[in-house]
Amino acid sequence: MFTIIQSHRTEILVEQLLSAYKSKNQPIFEEFIVIVPSMVLGEWLDKSIASQAGISTLVTTTFWGQYQWTLMQKVLAEYNTWLETMPSAQDILTVPEVAVLTGSVMQWRLFGYFTYYQTEIMANDAHPLYPLLSALLDGDADRSQQDIRLWSLATDFSRVFSRYLNHREAWLDLWSDNKAVDVEAMVAAKDELTIAFDKYAGKTPDWLVAHYTELEAAQRHLWHLLFAAVYKHRAAIETRFWQIMSGEVNNTEINLQALLPSHLHIFTIQQLPQNELDFLQRLSKYIDITLLHYNPSQLFWADIVDKQWLQRQQVINPESVFLRDYGHTLLSRLGKQSRETFAMLASLSGNEQHEGFELQWHDRFDVSDNINLAFDSHTESASSLSLLAHLQQDVLMLDESATQQATAGRVSAALGAQMALDLDDDTNNINSLSKNKADNKKKPKNIEPSENQWYSDDVLASKYNEQPRQWQLSQYDNSLSIHSCHNLQRQLEILRSMIGRWLNEPITKGKKRHLSDIVVLLPDVDRHHDLITSVFVNGKGQDGLTLPAKITGVVDKSIRQLWEAISGFYGLLGSETARFESAEVLDWLMLPPLYESLGLTHEQMRRGCDLLEQAGFVRGFDEAHLQYSLHTQDYDYRFSFAYALDQIALGLIMPEAGISDCLYPDNWKEDVLAEKTVPISSISLGDAPIVEALCRVHAGLNACRYEYQARYKAEDWLNRIESNIIHLYFGALDQTRPMRAIFNAMNGFKSSLRANRHYQRYHADSKNDVNIANDDVLAVGQVEAKLSQVSTLPLKLSFMLDSIEDELESQQVSAEPTGVITFGRFGALRNVPFGLVVMLNMDLSEFPNRDRDNRYDLMKAGLAKRGDRFSEDDDNGAFLDALLCARNACWIFYNGQRLTDTHEHLPANPVSELLQFLQGEIQWQWDPLKNAQKSFNIDNNLNSSAINDNNAALTAQVQRYLPKLIEQWLVTRHPALPFAEEVFITSEILSTQAATDSAEVSEQNFMQMLERAMQGEKLNQKQTNAPAKVWQDVFEHLQARDVENNQQPIKVNLPTKADYAVIAQRIQPNNDTNNDTDENFDVAHIDMQYLYLQVRHPARYFLKEQQVHIVLPAEDTVYQEPLSLSSLDAYTVNAQLLSGLYTATNDNSVVNENTNQQAAPINRLLYDPVMPAGVARQSTLNYQQLKITEQCREFSEELSSMGIQVNRHFTLDADDIDIESAEICLTLLTPCAEKMISVDAADMNIQGQINIKGSVPLALSAEKLSAEKSPELWLNILPNGARTQHLLRFWLAHVYWQVARRTTEAQVTANDGRSIWRFNKPSTEHAKYKGKTTFSLAPIAYETALAELLKWIRFAQIAGSTPMTILPMYAITYLDKVSDAQRKESVYQPKRGDFDSWLWSGYNSDMTYDTCSQHELWQYILQKQDGFTALTDALPVLAQPLFGAMNTALMPL
C-alpha cells in the first residue's frame, strides 16, 4: 500500500513518523528505514526522534538512490545463491558493490577516452567529437593545460549524463542501441508551444539547432561507446529484480518477506523524477510505503500557474487561459518545484485498487494548531495573528487578501497613532504600536469574528461575500521585516543586536526562546565564512552579547587547513611560477595543523617566522630554485629560505662565531664570491625545537621539489602523498576528524578508479548480445581495452591535488542544527522549522542561483517535463519554505545601498515579489482618514455632492500612496556605520507646526502629514533595536568632539607662554634668585646617549614617560630583495664601516697592525641582508668605501687648511681599498672611551652631586692610548647627515668633554680642546649650513660647560612630564630669523611660511616625519589645536635659553 500523509508543518509529520516508530507493529530488531532528501534533514530527524522518544536506535536515514541499489543487491544476491543450487538456463546477474554510473566514475572514463583518442579525434574532422575538442584544444596549449580542459569537459558531460539518468532515460535507451534522438523534432515542438502562447515569439535560430544536433551526435557516440553496456546491465538488474518480486521466475524457496522491510517511510521530497515515482508505485505492491509529504497549502493547487505569466497571457492570448488560476501569488511564483511534485503525487489519485496498487491520502492540516503555534510573542490571545502568521495562513488557504489587508491594517494603525499625536499636538513621542492603554482608547463597536472563526469551513465557504476584516493590533509587529544595508558586515552587526532583543522579549508563560531556535541562511555561506566568524565570535562580543554560532554545510576550516598544509609541501616550491615568497611561506608555516604536527605551539612557530624575517628571508628556496629567475652568473641567494635557515642553525650551534664557511666547503670559482654564514644573534637553547622543526620543513620541501612536474598514475600519487608527506609529517594527526575526511576523499578517488574495472566484464557480456553489430562490438572492445588502463594514466601532481581538493569540497558536509545559532546555505536546512529565520545577502546578483550555463545539456533543446529540476526553482522554493517554516519571525537583509554610489540597489527577485505582494490592491478603510475628511467638510461648509467628490479624491490619492507607505514601513534602511547619528534616537520631536497652523486639509498637506507620520513610526521602530553599548560610547565620543564650538576635549594640555617662561627660568636658575621653592629633580645618574634621545624630540620622550603608545602605519611587506641601497641602508653600511674603523683605532696603536682584524667587519657586510642583491652586492660596498675615502680626503684637506697636520700619504688602490681606507680614516678618527664623572649640582638631588657617563676622546701617549690625558683636538667622522638634531648631538658631546676634561681659561685661550666633526652629507634645513659637512666647536671653560650641561639635564627632566612643542630644527630657524631682524633693526614676528615643514609634509614625499605636526605623534598631542600657535608659544621663550649657546658656538668649515 502507498500512503501519503501531507501537512503544512514538519512537526506534524514528525509526530506521524514517531507514532509509526513507537507502533507495536514495528519489529523491535528491524531497521526503521526513512528515506530523506538530504543528510541534513536526516540528522535533524534522528535527533528529533531521540529527543521525543528518548531513543532513536535502529533509525536509519538514507538517500533513495542508495537504498534502491542496496535493496536490489540484497534480493538478487539471495536469488543468485538459490540459482547456483538449481539447474537453470538463466545467467547469474551480479550487482556491483557500488553504482558504476555515478558522476565520478563516468568522469574518469570520459577523461580517459578524451586523453587516449585525442590525437585520433583531432585528425578526423568527421569525428562526432571533433567540433567539441577542436574548440578546446589549440596548438599553443601545453600538456598540462590540455589535461585541465579535457577534465573540465569530462566533468560537464558526466553531469549531463547524470541528469539524463534521472530525467531522460528514453534517450539513453535509444543511444544504447546507437539510435539518434530527433533533436529537430524536439526543437520544433518547443517552438510550436511557445508560439501558441506568444505569437510574437521567435523560433530557435538555425545555428543553435545545428549546435544541438552536433551535441546529440557527440553524446550518442560517447554513451554508446562507453556506457551502453553497463547501462543495459543495470536495466537487466532492475528487470530481474521485478521478475523475482512478481514471481515470474522460479523462486519459491526465497523468503522475500525476510529480505524486504515491513514498512518504508519517505520523509518529505524536494524533487521527484518520474522514474523514481514509478519504482515506488510498483514497490508499494509488495511493502507498505508511507510518504510524509510537506505541502504548504491545504487546497488543491497542482494546476495553478505563474501569476505573471497568467497576467501576460490574459492580455496577449486571453482565449487560451480563461480557465486558469494562479491561486496565491507567492506560491505560484516561488513554489513551482513543489507544485510539480504535488502534481505528480496527485496523478496517482484515481488509481486505487488498480493492478494491485492501493493509495491512501491522509490530510493533517490542523488550522487551529497552526494559529496557536503562530502567536506573536507579545499577543495576549489568539485573536491577533502576526503578519508572518497571516501570510502562512493565506498560503495554506490560497487566499492572499488576508495578508494584504493585515499589512495595510498595521500600516494604517501605525500612521494613525502618529497622526493622532500630530493633531493633538502631543509632546510624547511614544511607540504607536506599544501596549499602552492610550493606544486602544477607542474600541470598535462591531465585534469581528476571531481568527479561528475566519478560517472555519463556514466562513471560508462564503468568504467572497464577507466585508474586509478589521485586524486588531496591539504591538509593533516585527515578525516579517526587510532591512537594507551597505554590506554583509553591517548586516551581521545589526543582526546581533536584533537577536539580543528577540531572545529577551517577553513571551507566553511557560515558554522560553533558545539560541537553537535561530537559523541564518545565506546564498553562499562558504565564501563569507571568515567574516561571519569575525562578527559572531566565540564568547562575549564587542557589543557585550554572548551569541555562540556555528557555520554548517561547508567544509570545516580544520579540514581545509590540513589539506593546505599537506599540499603546501608540493605547491609552494614545485610550480613553475612558484616564487616562494616570505609572506606566502610564513602564512603556510602558521597553519595550525602544520606546527602542531611538528610539535610546536603557535607562539613557537611565530618565533620561528620572526627568526626567518630577522635572517633576511624574502623569497626563493635556495640557490637552485633562484637560478630559474636569475642570471646564470648571479649566485647571490642571501635572501632565500635556505640561507636564512643556515644563519639560524649556526646561531644555535656556533653563537660566538663571526663569519663561518663551515656550511660551504666547496671550491668556489675564482670570479665568484665564496659564500659564508653570519650567525644571527638572540638564538637561545629554548629555540632548539623551533630550529629542528624548520629543518624538517626544509627537508620535506627539498624532497618534494621536483615531484610537481612529474607524472605518475593516480594510485601511485595517492600512495606517495600518504607515505612521503602524511605519515612523515602529519602522523600525530592520523586519528583526527580532518585527517579522516582527507583519507575518505582519497579513498573515494581510488574507488572511482577501481569502478572502471567492472566495465570490462559488462563489455564481455555484451558480446553475446545478438542486437549489437559486429563492427560496434569490435569498436567498443578496442576502446574498452584502453579504458581498462585508465587507472594507469600518467598524471601531473597539480592535477591530482586539484582533484582531491574537489573531492573534499563535494563530500557530504554536516549541516544539521547545532544547538546554537546556526548559519547555513539556502536549501541545506529546507523544511526544518525554526523560531527565527534570518536571510542575509539577499541581493539581486546573489540569489537565486541561476542554472549553470552548461552548453552541453540537451534538455534545454526540448520541452521541460514534469519532474525536471532547475537551480533557480530550487532556490525560490527554499526561500518560500524558509518563509513558511519560520514559527515566530522572518527577517530579510540585503545590500540596498553602497558606499561607492548613491542610487538604490534592488533586492533579490523573491524579496521584490514578496514586497509587491504585500503592496497589493487594498481598499484602505482608515479611521484617521475619515476623521480628516469629516473635519475638512465641516470647516468648509461643503454640500453633500462636494463632500462625496472631495472624499473620493482624497481616498484615491491615499490609495495611490499606500504601496509606498507599506514599503517604507516594511523596509528599514540602515546607515553604513553603527555609530552614525541616524542610529540614535534624539529627544527632538518631529515638527508638527506645519500641520497644525492651518485647519485646511488638502491633498498636499495630508500627504505631508502621512510622510511625517511614517518618519515618526520609523523613529519608533528604531527604539526597539537599540545599538550596542560600544557604539553608544563611540557616538557620544564623536558628539563630544563637536561641543563648545566644535572644540574637541584636549587629551594633552600644552603649556602656555607663561608656563614656558617658568620652564625657561627653571632650566637656567639665576644665582641671585631665591631657589628655596624650586622643586628637586631627584636625579642621580645621567647617560649622555640617553640624554640626547630625550632632548632631540621632547614630545616623543614625554609620551614614552606617560606610557602612551602611538600606533604608526605598518610598513609594507617586502616581496622583493633589495636591488639598490636606500638612504637608510646606506647609513647602516656607513655606520658599520666607521664602527669597524673605530674598533681598530681603539685596539691598535699602529695603523698597519692587524689589518685582517680591520678588514673583518668590512667583509662581514658582504653577507649582511642590508647589502643589495646580485652584482650590486660587491660594487655597492666598494662604492661606499670609496665615498668614505673621498670624505676623508676632503676632511684632511680642510684640516690642513686650518694648520692641522694629518697623514696624507695614501693611494687609492682598488685591490686594497679596505686597508687604504683604514689608513686614511684612522688618522682622522680620535679614539674614544666611556668615562664617568661626578659634578656638583645642588638642585638635582639631596646629595648635591650627579654622576654623568659619556664618551670622551683619548690621547696617544708613547704609542699607547691614555685615558688620563685629554687630547687637544677631537676629530670624528659620522655616517649621519648634518641635520640639526645631529648637530645637537655634536654639541652635547663637546660640552660633556669640556666638563670631563675640566677645561681651564688658559686652555680656552690656547684653543686646547677643540672638536671638529665631519658629517656624511650636508643638510638643507638652514641656509647658513647649506653645503656644509664639517663643523667646529671651540673649547669651553669648565664652569660655562657645566652650566650648559646641567641646563640640558634639567630640560630633559621637565620634558618627561610636560609636553613641549620645541624641536632643534625650528629653534635654530627662529634664532636665525631673529638675528636677521636685529641686523635690520626690526622685530621678528613668526610667519607660517617660515615653518612650512612643521605645518605640512613634503610635497614630493609620501612619508610624514615626526618633525611635522601632521605626524601621528603630534596629532595625538595637538588634537585640533593649531600647530603654528603651539609652536610659536614655545619658540620665543625657549629657543634662546636652550639653543642660543649652541647656535653661537657652532662654526661650519
TrEMBL record:
Transmembrane segments: none annotated. It holds the Pfam family Exonuc_V_gamma. The keyword Heme does not apply. Keywords: ATP-binding, DNA damage, DNA repair, DNA-binding, Exonuclease, Helicase, Hydrolase, Nuclease, Nucleotide-binding. SUPFAM superfamilies: P-loop containing nucleoside triphosphate hydrolases, Restriction endonuclease-like. The keyword Disulfide bond does not apply. GO terms for biological process: DNA recombination; DNA repair. Residues 436-448 have a biased composition (Basic and acidic residues). It comes from the Bacteria. InterPro entries: P-loop_NTPase, Restrct_endonuc-II-like. PANTHER family: RECBCD ENZYME SUBUNIT RECC (PTHR30591:SF1). This is Exodeoxyribonuclease V subunit gamma. It comes from Psychrobacter urativorans. The lineage of its organism: Bacteria, Pseudomonadati, Pseudomonadota, Gammaproteobacteria, Moraxellales.
